[in-house]
Every structure is written in structure tokens, then in C-alpha cells.
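FAQ: What does the model actually see?

It sees only this:
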Amino acid sequence: MAKHKIEPKVNLDEYFRGLARQDLDFHQALCELVDNALSARTMTKLGATKSKPNPAIVEIVVDQVSDARVQISVADAGIGMTIADLQNHVFGLGQRGRTSSAAGSMNEHGFGLKNALAVLTGGDSTRVSLVSRSEDDGLTADQFLTVSGPFASAMDADDSGTRKNDWAPGLQILSGVATGTKVQVESDIAYFRTVWTRRGAASQFPAYVTRLAEHLGVLYREFIDSGDTIYLSWRALGGSWSEPIPLMAIKPPYGNHVTARIPLNVGGRKIDVGYTYGENDYQIRDEGPEPDRKTVGHGDPSYPYPLKIYYQGSSSRSGADIVVRRRVIRTQAWKEIWPDIDHTVDYNRWLAEINLDDNFHTTNNKAGMDPNDPAWQALVDVLGDKDGPYTPEKTSPKQTEKSIEDQLAEHLRVQVADPALVAQQVGTWAGATTADIVVYETASRTTVAQIFEVKAVRGTVDDVYQLVCQWDGFVKDGLKPKEGILYCKTSDHKPATAIAELNKRKDGNGNNYNLRISHLVGASASTPKKPPIGKKTAATKRAAKKSQGSKRSK
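And it is asked to produce this:
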């Protein structure tokens, strides 16, 4: 009997091609390169034993080099890499990338960079190159290490690279940094277009870059918010370079929200989880947060708003964002947390964030959570409890508008002499359209004091014309409307401009339209503001007073 030594051999070409077969979209694979760039930030010493991480600067360059290929460069101004780092931390199988030990490092597995390079290049490692300079290798100021594919068991790190020829090309922000790393890959244009499910011609290249900016703004919002800067520039085939744009931090567009802390005890470990949930505000989704509504490059207000991918208010694009060590690694999560709740349109406006620390493990491509992680399983047990406090709330516009309409109608009924003067869902145009609330002036119902069009979301010009349609319908029915009110959560200048123009015109009775906008109070669409309904006549006031007196006598 004897023991035989087995020495496994790795066919790196087959290994690389195998890694490429993953269900990752372009932006998900690119994020691994950005993660590494952020993790390599420099540090400032605070005395003999302490130091603090410096804000990171990352530059992403997207260059359409042919009808079939796009070249992507991700550069940082971090600590750079030595020859030993390249061997032990970058190209070694299962080895983690070199970091500055800065807080928030995403180098969890040692597989991410290899995954990303394989997927981005379609398994062709000849499309990969790396340029780096560290203070620890004794290189001159203009000398850089360069490594090019294909991957092999032995690869050359060439120290004859120069700033002019190898580091600076394509870079507009970081061309002159002292240390840093640039990873460059070539991807198929078809794979690049997975940043957006909408397919288009090569002439739409800038539109795909804009959607890439949306992805990165969502996924790295906490890094950007804390002072890191990620620049994005591009060049379409045959075009000129764009200006580098500093990406915006894109947060969930909450109209109103609640934040809670969820304590867990996992095998004696005490873990604290942040949990925020609320309602989608479509105006923020379309225009950006109020302070950021300004021109940021290319003439687009709040680039890359309006959002086209995230927070779209549909059952397939609502749910919870999962944030691990400050990086959003999963959006629109639902079934893995609430498998027993049907993801219907009733939840279209529901948003949430789950903030996790390094007690939680992701999958090795960082596209989701490790389902076998005890900490994640414990959290899902708490969040997924259908009778618990953390289950999603139904917030579909129809349901919310009905709630607002009912509350408003009830409020109006106590403002008028006779509650019967307030009616809901009143049809006009032979039932083809319906006014949400109608307040009649008298019991004869020949004069309509007010018509209300209720919207749980931002009011639009279409809503104004819906109100006009109802007004005209009542005129056709022989009634005399006096005021039309668009009662909505918020609105911009466009509906107000339309109303100003329409109020100059006359209806079928020869009277001017009298339209206005009234907003709900605060951020919540379920709490209507007291609407200024018309002044009561002396007779109405006496009748109301008499009614109140009779109620008190009872």
C-alpha cells in the first residue's frame, strides 16, 4: 500500500473561459474593478500607530474603438502595486487584491477581479492589461509596471512602461498622479449594451453611457456621499472625448420614509442591521433631489436624471436595495426575503434599503447575498415574518389615491352645511369620465361649487386637462361649475402654466374656467392638506351652526 502525491494542474485558458460563463451584466462586472480602485485608496498617518483613509478618486473611461468593441479603463490614484503584489494579490488564484486596509474594502473573496476580467472580455485574456506605479518599487516618477494578457502560469511585469505611453492615454483627471493602478479591458459592444435592456444602434452609444452612470450612481452612492469621486468620460466611434463627469450619488427617491435598527444575535455575535423603507416619489426619480437639480455636463439637468432603470414604480423594479459595507450589491430584492408575498402592483411605490456590515457574506461575484450565510438567514427570518413590523406596505397609486380621496371627502363633508352636498366618483360624458369629488352648492345640485381631481403623485398637464374634461362634461349636462382643483402631492411649473392659460378661456356657459392646484401637506401622500374651499354664505354658516348646536344638545 502506498500514498501517491497528486499535484493538480490548472489550465489557465480553460479556467478563464469557464469564469466568463456567468450571469452578470456589464455594469456588475465593471463594479469589481471599481471596488478594487476604491479599496486601494491612500492613507494619511495620524501619529505613530494611527492613520485615516483619504478620499478616493477613480476615473472610468469608455472608448468605442470599433463597431464590435468597446475599451474600458478604470484608473485610481491609490497606493499602486509592486511586482510582489501582482504575483501574490492580483493574478494568483484565490488571492485577494492588495488594499490599504481602508474601511469599507470590498475585497472579500479573492475571486472578484478574475471573475470580472473573464466576463468583461468574454473569456479572452489577451484583451486585458494593467499599468501600475507604487512608491515601494523604486521606480522613477515616469516609470510604470505593465502586465498584459494572456494569463499564464508565468507572466512578465515590464518596468519599462512610461506615463506618456502607458498610463496617461485616455485619462483626463488622473494622468499626472504619483501612484495608482489602471486596468484596461476590451469588451464586445453587445455585452456593453447589457447596461440597459433597451436595444439600439451604435449611434446611441452616449445613451448607454448615461445609463452606466445611473448604475454607478446607485451602486456607489454611499462612497460618493462620503467624499469619494468617480469620474466618467467616453468617446463614441469616430467622435471626440466627452468632459469627465463626476457621478452623482443616486439614493432611493423617498417621498417619506422610516428608518429602524434591527438587532440580531447569530451564534453569540451581536449584529446591528439598518433598515429604511418608504414611498417612491416620482418627481425625485425624474428630476433628482431638489438641491441637485442643476446642469451637470452635456446640458442634462442633474445628469443622469431622469432615471430609466431604477425605482421605476413597477412590480419588477420595486423592492429592497441591499447595501454591504457601503456598496449596493443588489437592488429590487424581493423573493429572497419575502417569498410568501406576491409582488403585485400594490407594492409598486414601496422602496427599502438594508444596510449590512462585514458580518454578512456575498456570493463570489458580489451579485447577491450568500443564501447559506447564518447571519443572512437570521435576518431573512426577521424581515420575512409576515406578522412582523418589517413586511412591505401596499402603496400603489390607485390604493393611495382612494385613501386620499376618502379622507378629503370626509374633510369636505364637515365643512359644508349638508354632507350630502359632497359626492364621490361622479360621472360625466355619459359615464366616459369620472370626477373624483364634486361639491354641490345647493341641494338642487344645479351648480357645482368645486370639482376635485385627486392624484397621489406629482400633478401633470394631463391631469389639468382631465379636470377641464370633467368641467366641460358638467356644462354639457346643464350644470354650472365654479371651481376646479387639481389636488396632488406636488407639481412643477408646467401644470401651473397650463392653468394660467386655460383660465383665460371660457366654457360652454360663457364663463371663464377657474382652475387651481392644491398640494398635499408634507411629504406623505396619505395626509391631505385642508383645502381652501369657497367661503360659506351667511345662510350656510347659520345652518352649520344650527347643526352643531343640535349635535351638542344630543
